[in-house]
Amino acid sequence: MVKLIEILEGIRPDVDFLNETNLINDGVLDSFDIVSIISELNDEYDIAIRVTELGPENFNSMEAIHKMVERLRTKE
Fold this sequence. Notes:
Blueprint: H1 2-11, H2 31-45, H3 62-75
């Protein structure tokens, strides 16, 4: 999870990813942020985040992002 925090903070150092739970719903992250996060996650974890994964339930918090990454890593 440390690497995930580094990725997220590298993209948006102004966001408290450890405590924020409504990254999408509250508009903390915009579409460019999401594209950047997806690109970094795909490269770092060798996964493919598909359009079907783009719902707020997978990006509203660091924990949700982590769960999605782990789920996709076990699928591959």
